[in-house]
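Title: Comparing notes on inverse folding

I've been comparing how different people in this forum approach sequence design from structure. To keep things fair, I'm posting one structure and asking everyone to reply with a full sequence. Here's the target:
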């Protein structure tokens, strides 16, 4: 069993109290590593190191161009180690190796490359104010950033948070989820190898209490960036409010995936399977509410169920596996509870709803692709985020009714629309309250495009040039170019 330490001020160190926890392989329940557990004192050490690095030493003197070169070096090192990192990611979170290697790692590399190019393009503007003045703005880094990431995309979420913050000139204290700390610590090793100055990047695995709470409420943290559940996001915002730190949140979703009567089923069926069953449904933007027009309902569902039955469940390290386990026993239990809730509410379970019977999978946290039909949009299974391979299917006939049902939840993260009519698609895209709309595709999240939600799905936007607003402050500078100055009292 491998031991893993905290990364603080450029070094791997034990926790102050010597506390550790186990990282579990969800495919078989075995312990991968014993990991140092950050607690309040460790978070304080990391924040102080990040504060010193931001105020002193080489980091504040480094040019934006040099920061860009550093980010490119990190991207190159991730690329060199992509096979090892993909395997570690699969072992830690349980996603199929083909997902980790073909989706996650390329996006991680692209993320660091993209923000390497962004580093020297964070610019101010000149403003044509009246009078003999030159007025311009500067974009300056917000400071020390606390970043708290979830377990469903551990390495990619670390990249999403870390890369733009470093490009802006901030320093970082990253708390990965306690379920999946391994690849974030590997990324810390890569930062060390890339010669990121000490204190600029700190990685402190730990639990929400005390580590996450200590980071979110620390008086020397200037901003908190959190990805996770809406319930925890609200707590993070409350903690940040105590000293008015900046807070950005990328939270939950219950996204509508809409199949109109003129959709091309050859695209809509596999696209809808991908929308919900990618990463065993553990995707914040998952198309977990499937709205199907009554005119094509039967033909669509026949094909959808056939496709879902063919999904291969198995060892995520097997490249033939399409659906791996859920991340933990706790998440498996949560999904099982929602299956019971759905049946009690009167929805009809037509596929799955249980752990697979195969004895080779008995020790892991596996759950079959699950489909509910005859679902009322007001049911809990159609309103609450399950975060598993569970889709609820809702029949509709009227587009006004569809819009009302689609917008009926507290969430507004994403939506999918399948149609061959561009006019219908764009009108629906405008009517649906969500931050991300996919038309005739799903779950496409390039680093160049903004990602975030309406309503209780979050605050702010990740990725693209828009994320730089979260990691910079705007400073206005006004210069008087005339003679005489201000003589108000003379």
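Reply #1:
Here's my take.
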């Amino acid at each position: 069993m491998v031991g893993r330490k905290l990364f603080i001020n450029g070094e791997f160190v034990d926790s102050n109290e010597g506390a550790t926890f186990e990282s579990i392989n969800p495919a078989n329940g075995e312990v991968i590593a014993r990991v140092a557990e950050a607690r309040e004192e460790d978070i304080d050490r990391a924040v102080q190191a990040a504060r010193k690095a931001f105020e002193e030493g080489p980091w504040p003197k480094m040019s934006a161009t040099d920061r860009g070169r550093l980010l490119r070096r990190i991207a190159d090192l991730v690329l060199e180690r992509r096979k090892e990192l993909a395997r570690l990611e699969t072992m830690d979170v349980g996603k199929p190796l083909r997902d980790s290697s073909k989706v996650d790692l390329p996006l991680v590399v692209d993320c660091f490359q993209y923000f390497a190019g962004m580093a020297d393009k964070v610019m101010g503007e000149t403003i044509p104010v009246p009078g003999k003045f030159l007025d311009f703005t500067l974009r300056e880094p917000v400071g020390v950033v606390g970043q708290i990431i979830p377990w469903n995309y551990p390495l990619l979420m670390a990249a999403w948070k870390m890369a733009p913050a470093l490009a802006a000139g901030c320093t970082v204290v990253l708390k990965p989820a306690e379920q999946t700390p391994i690849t974030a610590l590997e990324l810390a090793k890569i930062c060390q190898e890339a010669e990121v100055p000490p204190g600029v990047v700190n990685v402190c695995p730990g639990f929400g209490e005390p580590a996450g709470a200590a980071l979110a409420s620390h008086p020397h943290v200037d901003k908190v960036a959190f990805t996770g559940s809406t319930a925890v996001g609200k707590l993070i915002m409350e903690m940040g409010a105590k000293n008015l730190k900046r807070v950005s949140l990328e939270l939950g979703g219950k996204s509508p995936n809409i199949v109109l009567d003129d959709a091309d089923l050859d695209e809509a069926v596999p696209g809808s399977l991908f929308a919900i069953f990618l990463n065993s449904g553990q995707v914040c933007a998952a198309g977990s509410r499937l709205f199907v027009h009554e005119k094509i309902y039967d033909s669509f569902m026949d094909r959808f169920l056939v496709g879902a039955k063919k999904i291969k469940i198995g060892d995520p390290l097997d490249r033939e596996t399409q659906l791996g386990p859920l991340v933990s026993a706790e998440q498996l239990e949560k999904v099982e509870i929602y299956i019971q809730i759905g049946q009690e509410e009167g929805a009809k379970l037509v596929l799955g709803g249980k752990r697979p019977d195969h004895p080779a999978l008995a020790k892991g946290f596996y759950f079959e692709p699950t489909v509910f039909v005859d679902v009322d949009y007001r049911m809990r299974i159609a309103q609450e985020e399950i975060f598993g391979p569970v889709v609820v299917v809702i029949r509709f006939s009227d587009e006004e009714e569809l819009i009302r049902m689609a917008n009926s939840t507290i969430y507004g993260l994403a939506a999918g629309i399948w149609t061959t009519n561009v006019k219908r698609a764009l009108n629906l895209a405008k009517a649906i309250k969500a931050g991300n709309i996919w038309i005739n595709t799903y779950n496409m999240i390039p680093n160049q495009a903004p990602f975030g939600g309406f309503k209780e799905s979050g605050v702010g936007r990740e990725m693209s040039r828009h994320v730089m607003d979260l990691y910079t402050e705007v400073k206005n500078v006004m210069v008087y170019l005339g003679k005489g100055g201000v003589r108000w009292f003379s």
